[in-house]
Amino acid sequence: MHVLVATDGQLDPAAVAKFCAPLAGDDGTVTVLTVIEVPRAMLQDLRDHFNDQLPPTLHMADSETVTTTPADAPRSWPGDDAIIDQYLLGKEHERCEPIVTFLTANGVNATSKVVEGPAARGILETAAAEDVDLIVVGSHGLGP
Fold first, then answer.
1. What b/e string do you get for 112-136 counting C-beta neighbours within 10 Å, with b at 16 or more?
2. pLDDT over 70, % of the chain
């Protein structure tokens, strides 16, 4: 069985592993997903946060090379995507990796994923794209 666990970072990794391991079964997979809404209005905050941590050169997915984001970069500057990608990967690691670690320690094939957008749409689109059999969400998280 392929189980999708949607988390906003508030789920207890040990409890998730205990609950999901039997659901996935011996040959199953668990994908731990976090969905992040990153509106473009947040770009200046992201620039302020990551500017001193970005490498001097960024290699974009389309093979375009750009320098680090200048503080006064115009909207839609090519580095925006690189900053958002770095932010999303950080959130994936922060929110999903503890659960993946517990699952793999319990012998479950587990991976993590992050998508950008509204939570419900991100969960449903990922479930469809990944051919998920079951979606698991927490009931006491603090996010949407």
1. bbbbeeebeebbeebbeeeebeeeb
2. 68
Exposed / middle / buried, residue 34 (Cβ in 10 Å: 0-12, 13-18, 19+)? buried
* Residue 2, phi-psi category: left (phi > 0), alpha (psi -120 to 50), beta (remainder): beta
Q: Are 1 and 28 in contact (CB under 8 A)?
A: yes
Average pLDDT, the chain: 80
Tokens 């508030």 label which residue? 10
Under 8 Å between Cβ of 10 and 89: no
Alpha carbon distance 86, 88 (integer Å): 6
CA 143 to chain centre: 14
